[in-house]
Design goal:
heterodimer; A: 164 residues; Ubiquitin-like (UB roll); 41% helix; globular; B: 734 residues; Aldehyde Oxidoreductase, domain 4; seven-stranded mixed sheet; 31% helix
């Protein structure tokens, strides 16, 4: 029996300990927001937080997250109570097909948690593990910047300049 | 593809309401009797005036989107069209994805399909008219109920206004149902648009940002089991022997058996099915394709071009004489490889067969095909097959091919349980259907004044349409037996090989420039790999050849790329204008040292696009810093979604231009996942600026037209940076 925390709730499962976290979350706990894209840790559609770090869960055996804390896109925010990144995704009309966006947002949230003020290059580096076939990259970057402290600083600067 | 020209009268027929149902204006089957019931939710007290709308008692306006939402924003776009005239904010609508029904036919091609960048163009008048007619009906009902003249009433976002009173539309539904509708209620002039042309948000963004948008792969029904298929490395090979003894002993495995495309493994979970599949040993039959490598394709295409015995057309003027008399001529050969679409959501479908009824859940571009295909496999009437559309995790043409639905139905029937079939990423990249490889040769000639006078263009490669036709035939002609379908499919292949050029094979190779002497020749060379439409279809490779050649012949004529294009597009004025505007943008650009600008322009899907790529080459690596796109797509219904589609087209096309190649080795695709079939990532993605020219005409395509110019724009910039003229995709410096 493997025990862990899923979106703040203590849970347990007796699946084969080699089963990837992604499939445990999708097929056993029926949280379908995290996606299967490649099965090889190459595209990031399956990204969740494990103890706060963005992890490719299609190649993470469930045994490896025993007693750890897992957050999925469902645990980050809901349509009624959006995380600031989710609100920015709406504001900047980021998603196209939307399939990769759970993973994109989880990767971005982990970045901002660790580095609330990322440079453009730091955003690139943190997001390079997440593929978007629809080509939403410019908007993803803009949305991340909009909720980073940098953006607040820039906004304040722009307002000062505007009033001067 | 069956093309239906839609007259205004037919449009009005389609939007006329009688009783509770829609008069069907575009019946695909032609001879059907009573219209089938609409596949819409039955909600107590809801009014369903037609296939697109429901008004609920709480005044929720529910919109059924007839086109497949694969990211192109069509749901927002269509909701905007109907909402504009109905006077309901599209963002306030309850959005539903439509099931399969003849009322959801795409007016552009006579069946329920989404593709060809057609949706907004095809529905622009139709859905506005539907919205206007229903608003008119509600106003008339309100006038009766309130005992006032309709002229005293106005509307505002789902409410009828009378003086200071605001009455929800739902209040007048009962009376509205007893009235007959005006078939051609007046439409708003553009100057009164509230939603069209505005920067509204997407209706699906919150669902997609919170993981709550349902894709096919997310569907879960009671007692659902999971299936994967062990597939032949070489297309269409059948299993000669199967050793599944080890796999059968794996935990969770329910059954292992052969299906039409390989060996199916059914288990309690996807992971168990995938683990078991890895233990199955299959001996596959040998195929003629076993002897084909990537080099074979190119060699066979070159031999066909040398033999020059293909199908000609169009031919204008005297090309041989023109090439002889030209002041300068230039000839070159261009190559584009096989490609996979690789949408982020791998193919999947849920099928449940219960007695003589079946349910199918998936996201697909051709819902029309589903009932017919599943009815054949399950041996039940097509009208007993219910299709439940989901969001599509990317389409790009790939979800126009329905083979995964046939497979899922075969498996569900065999085991008597609802099943979800999931393709792995390896299946996706290796199995196709593919974007065909192409070898193109162009000979061009100019006179002393820089006029393009001769254009002799040829393409060799596989055709796209006959394969897709073959996959849809069994669905569309349910009365045909398997033998007859095979015969008709073979006939269509033979026809395109011998008598007519499949338009998709050469589109974009010759249409854009003024050349009085023109010859286009097509050589069908088919190695029996499965093919289908890939974003921008033929334009995805022809634009590379054409726009590279235009830069080359412009240089031979001693002219700059923009002046040459302007001078030689007098007969294509909208393209000419786009080139002019883009040229003005380019003239103002001041790229840093080491950065070079490449230009390309192309007309596709009724839209004109010019792109300028700012490129540097460092240590042999091509880096694209910025792309500026100028386009004329007529009325931009949602300018921000237009920009998003152009950005997406550029990134999709840039992935192909810089990385995209599938290699054949003894008939099998060598690449297998994103490590060896790489995609452009954020750190390689350029800044993209989109300039929309508002020409005030009706809308034209945007999903695909952003893609074709990007590869030649980059190649033209690389030439300036290095002097190397790259004529093979992907672009790689030697």
């Amino acid at each position: 029996m493997i025990q862990f925390t899923l979106n703040g709730q203590a849970v347990q499962t007796d699946v084969d300990p080699n089963t990837p976290l992604l499939w445990v979350v999708r097929d056993h706990f029926k949280l379908k927001g995290s996606k299967f894209g490649c099965g090889a840790g190459l595209c990031g559609a399956c990204t969740m937080h494990v103890d706060g770090a963005a992890i490719k869960t299609c190649v993470t055996p469930i045994a490896a997250v025993a007693s750890k804390s897992i957050t999925t896109i469902e645990g980050l925010g809901t349509p009624e109570d959006l995380h600031p990144l989710q609100a920015a995704w709406h504001e900047y009309a980021v998603p196209q097909c939307g399939y990769c966006q759970s993973g994109q947002i989880m990767a971005a949230a982990a970045l901002l948690d660790a580095n609330p003020n990322p440079s453009s290059d730091e955003i690139d580096a943190a997001m390079a593990g997440n593929i978007c076939r629809c080509g939403c990259y410019p908007r993803i970057k803009r949305a991340i910047q909009s909720v980073s402290e940098n953006a607040l600083a820039y906004d304040a600067m722009a307002q000062t300049e505007g009033s001067a | 593809m069956n093309t239906v020209n839609v007259s205004r009268r037919r449009l009005l027929q389609a939007t006329a309401v009688t009783g509770g149902g829609l008069v069907v204006g575009f019946a695909f089957t032609g001879c059907s009797s009573a219209p089938a019931p609409l596949p819409v939710a039955s909600t107590e007290g809801a009014w369903t005036p037609n296939a697109f709308l429901q008004v609920l008692p709480d005044n929720t306006i529910r919109f059924y989107t007839a086109r497949s939402e694969m990211g192109q924003g069509v749901t927002t776009g269509l909701a905007t069209l109907i909402g504009e005239e109905l006077d309901v904010n599209p963002l306030n609508m309850d959005i539903r994805l439509a099931g399969a029904h003849e009322d959801y036919v795409n007016p552009a091609f006579g069946m329920q399909g989404t593709g060809g960048s057609s949706s907004i163009r095809a529905h622009y008048m139709q859905l506005r008219q539907v919205g206007a007619n229903i608003r008119g009906l509600i106003l008339e009902a309100a006038a009766q109920d309130l005992g006032v003249s309709a002229l005293a009433l106005s509307t505002d976002n789902g409410f009828v206004l009378h003086g200071d009173e605001r009455h929800p539309y739902a209040a007048f539904v009962e009376t509205a149902q007893s009235l007959s509708i005006e078939a051609d209620a007046p439409l708003k002039p553009a100057s009164q648009f509230q939603y069209i042309s505005q920067e509204t948000k997407r209706v699906d963004a919150i669902a997609k940002a919170t993981g709550t948008a349902e894709f096919g792969i997310d569907v879960d029904v009671p007692d659902m089991h999971y299936a994967v298929i062990v597939r032949p490395p070489v297309a269409r090979a059948k299993a000669q022997s199967v050793n599944a003894a080890n796999a059968k002993a794996n935990p969770g495995v329910i059954n292992i058996f052969e299906v039409s495309t390989g060996v199916a493994v059914v288990a309690e979970t996807f992971w168990q099915a995938k683990q078991a599949a890895a233990k199955i040993e299959v001996q596959w039959e040998s195929m003629p394709l076993d002897s084909v490598d990537t080099e074979t394709l190119r060699r066979d295409y070159a031999a066909a071009l040398d033999a020059n015995d293909g199908v000609e057309g169009p031919v204008e003027g005297d090309i041989d004489e023109a090439l002889q008399s030209a002041a300068k001529t230039h000839e070159a050969e261009y190559w584009a490889p096989l490609l996979s679409h690789s949408p982020m959501e791998p193919m999947n479908a849920v099928v449940r067969i219960d007695g003589d009824k079946a349910d199918v859940w998936t996201g697909i571009q051709f819902p029309s095909a589903v009932p017919g295909l599943v009815s054949r496999v399950a041996d039940i009437p097509a009208e007993n097959v219910r299709f439940h559309q989901t969001y599509l995790g990317g389409g790009f043409g790939r979800r126009g091919s329905p083979s995964h639905i046939i497979e899922a139905a075969e498996i569900a029937k065999a085991i008597g349980k609802p099943i979800q079939l999931v393709w792995t990423r390896e299946d996706d990249i290796q199995q196709g259907p593919f974007r065909p490889a192409s070898l193109m040769r162009i000979k061009a000639g100019v006179d002393n004044d820089g006029n393009l006078i001769a254009w002799d263009a040829a393409r060799a490669g596989a055709d796209i349409s006959p394969d897709t036709f073959r996959s849809l035939l069994p669905a569309l002609y349910s009365w045909m037996g398997d033998g007859m379908i095979e015969g008709v499919a073979n006939l269509s292949e033979w026809y395109f090989e011998k008598f007519a050029t499949d338009e998709s094979s050469t589109e974009g190779l010759f249409e854009d420039y003024d050349h009085p002497n023109t010859r286009v020749t097509h050589m069908t060379v088919d190695h029996e790999l499965p093919m289908t439409f890939w974003r921008a279809v033929g334009h995805s490779y022809t634009a590379f050849a054409k726009e590279s050649m235009i830069d080359e012949i412009a240089e031979a004529a001693g002219m700059d790329e923009v002046s040459f294009r302007l001078q030689n597009t007098q007969n294509t004025p909208r393209l000419n204008n786009v080139i002019r505007v883009a040229g003005e943008h380019m003239a103002k650009m001041n790229p840093p040292e080491g950065h070079h600008l490449g230009f390309a322009a192309h007309h596709s899907f009724y839209t004109d696009v010019a792109e300028i790529a700012e490129v540097s080459v460092e240590n042999g690596k091509i880096r694209v810093h910025k792309v500026t796109c100028v386009l004329d797509c007529g009325q931009a219904v949602n300018p921000d979604i237009v920009r998003a589609q152009i950005e997406g087209g550029v990134v999709y096309g840039l992935t192909a231009a810089l990385y995209g190649v599938l290699n054949l080795e003894r008939g099998a695709i060598k690449e297998s996942n994103f490590h060896d079939y790489p995609m452009l990532r954020m750190n390689e993605s350029p800044e993209i600026e989109v300039v929309i020219i508002d020409s005030g005409t009706k809308p034209t395509g945007v999903g695909e037209p952003g893609l074709p110019p990007i590869a030649p724009a980059v190649a033209n910039a690389v030439y300036k940076a290095t002097g190397q003229r790259l004529r093979s995709l992907p672009l790689q410096l030697t």
